[in-house]
Amino acid sequence: MSYVTVGQENGQSIELYFEDHGSGQAVVLIHGFPLNGHSWERQEAALLDAGYRVITYDRRGFGASSKPSTGYDYDTFTRDLDALLSHLDLREVVLVGFSMGTGEVSRYLGQYGSERVSKAVLIGPIPPYLLKTADNPEGVDQQVFEGIKDAIRKDRAAYLTQFFENFYNTDALLGSRVSQEVLRLSWNVAARASARATLACVDTWLTDFRADIAKIDVPTLIIHGDADRILPFDATAKRLPELIAGSELVVIANGPHNVLWTFAEEVNAALLTFLQK
């Protein structure tokens, strides 16, 4: 098992678990909430078969990474990513984020630039800015996020069950594009995450990425399902082509939030076509 140390808490190392497979151009896959790096299994298989080197890692607080009490903000998440890229001395890397992972991609390019990065992919993105404000009327009302935090505090296990119903749009797709076993697997992975991290991450969804995405200067692919109930298309991906110069948008018809699993073939085809350009 491979780890990179990204900090300390009370004299103990904070470590990120990562996996590094294959050869060729490196593609770093950054997972969504509340899963871990293994949630990319369908994309990892396609990328390895196509001759890419694939690196996945678990965000702090999730998966096999350390679960500290602090550091649940995008500046820290991005420093963690930079520590991994530096540890592996990656160059010409492709950064691919899903959901929360699109925040790391955006902030990394905004703060660290593109010296190490050749392309970016944002799948089910959280940017540009999810919170409704006077200068961001397309966003989501603050009370929605307060309700999510209350539900997690009251009964995290029950919240996760409801979350995954909307993560996969089970009323429409269960039995056809997602199985009960996948739901069970996702719930089990999420339940093992840090309870503190699960709660703290909700506030990170309200991060303003507008200044970061304005600095993106590499070819960028955006993929989003038009039936996303977690990160609404109109508040997120639909706005990005005008904000990221030269970006491409692929919309997955009837796609829920987790198109990585439910529409894997479509996502993989778009991803590989983009990488081969």
Automatic annotation (TrEMBL):
The keyword Ribosomal protein does not apply. GO terms for molecular function: acyltransferase activity; hydrolase activity. InterPro entries: AB_hydrolase, AB_hydrolase_1, AB_hydrolase_fold, Epox_hydrolase-like. It comes from the Bacteria. Residues 26-262 form the AB hydrolase-1 domain. The keyword Signal does not apply. Signal peptide: none annotated. SUPFAM superfamilies: alpha/beta-Hydrolases. Keywords: Acyltransferase, Hydrolase, Transferase. PANTHER family: HYDROLASE, ALPHA/BETA FOLD FAMILY PROTEIN, NON-HEME CHLOROPEROXIDASE-RELATED. Belongs to the AB hydrolase superfamily. Bacterial non-heme haloperoxidase / perhydrolase family. This is Putative hydrolase or acyltransferase of alpha/beta superfamily. It comes from Deinococcus peraridilitoris (strain DSM 19664 / LMG 22246 / CIP 109416 / KR-200).
